[in-house]
Design brief:
- The chain is an all-alpha fold.
- α5 packs across α10.
- The longest helix has 26 residues.
Length: 267
């Protein structure tokens, strides 16, 4: 027993002081993946939500530590940026510019608000529209705050950035990814499994396309991954909240307006 305490203290010290090493990164990411998988198979919505959210938060934390300290995970950033910079073309430049412009934080929030208004006018319950907007705003503000903490010099390694500057990178990608994810989730409420799968695939393709546009313009891979993880956390929580409301509406989302506990839509 006397030898256990020093061993534990030594392990904790190593984790704290060598967080940006390969060994710690792979171990932490492996644990995060295992916890996330457990959250996918465990019964009980509360436990599943907690496990998935915790796993994504742990993965985001280790990625951010490596961005901040220039750790092992950032090793591929410069090489990938150089490869993409060497294969630039006018057509891809235009596509990347459009892709990044579509992901502005203000635009993401505006799109979420517009979708919420359309949902309410179509007699969806007001909480659904509120969750949609809340998830997107949380992703934007969390991404902006994280970018500020990491600093533009480390979170962004610009080679060619026609739109994104400074700490806006994480907020841009996180907000846009959250919009796509929440739109797919809401559209799939009460629909068939096949349609929900197609919507999820479309959202993933959209996020990959937007992330690729940022990689093409010189944003480091670790910064892009951090933005996607921020969106994934907000989407996970938003999806869980939507599931609580959808579970009370067996016949589909439009029947929710008359359910107890829902705020009826105007009109």
């Amino acid at each position: 027993m006397s030898g256990t305490v020093p061993l534990v203290r030594e392990m904790v010290t190593e984790v704290v002081t060598e967080t940006a090493t390969m060994e710690i990164a792979l171990t932490v990411l492996g644990i995060a993946v295992a916890v996330f998988v457990a959250g996918m198979v465990v019964t009980g919505s509360g436990q599943a939500l907690g496990l998935r959210t915790a796993a994504l938060a742990v993965a985001l934390s280790i990625v951010c530590v490596h961005i901040r300290d220039g750790g092992w995970l950032t090793g591929a950033d410069r090489s990938l940026t150089s490869v993409l910079a060497a294969h630039r073309s006018a057509g891809l430049d235009h596509l990347a510019t459009v892709g990044i412009a579509l992901g502005a934080p203000a635009g993401a929030i505006a799109v979420a608000a517009a979708i919420g208004m359309v949902l309410i006018r179509r007699r969806w319950p007001v909480p659904v529209a509120s969750i949609m907007l809340g998830a997107v705003m949380a992703a934007v503000f969390a991404g902006a705050a994280l970018g500020t903490v990491l600093g533009p010099g480390r979170a962004v390694a610009g080679v060619w950035q026609p739109v994104d500057t400074g700490n806006a990178v994480l907020a841009n990608l996180a907000g846009t990814a959250a919009v796509l994810g929440m739109a797919a989730v809401i559209t799939g409420i009460g629909r068939s499994r096949t349609l929900r799968t197609l919507l999820a695939a479309a959202a993933v393709i959209g996020v990959v396309a937007l992330a690729s546009a940022r990689l093409y313009t010189g944003i480091p891979l670790t910064g892009v991954v951090a933005g996607v993880l921020v969106a994934a956390i907000c989407l996970t929580v938003g999806h869980a909240l939507l599931a609580v409301f959808a579970a009370r509406v067996p016949s589909g989302p439009r029947g929710a307006a008359s359910e107890p506990g829902f705020v009826s839509a105007a009109g």
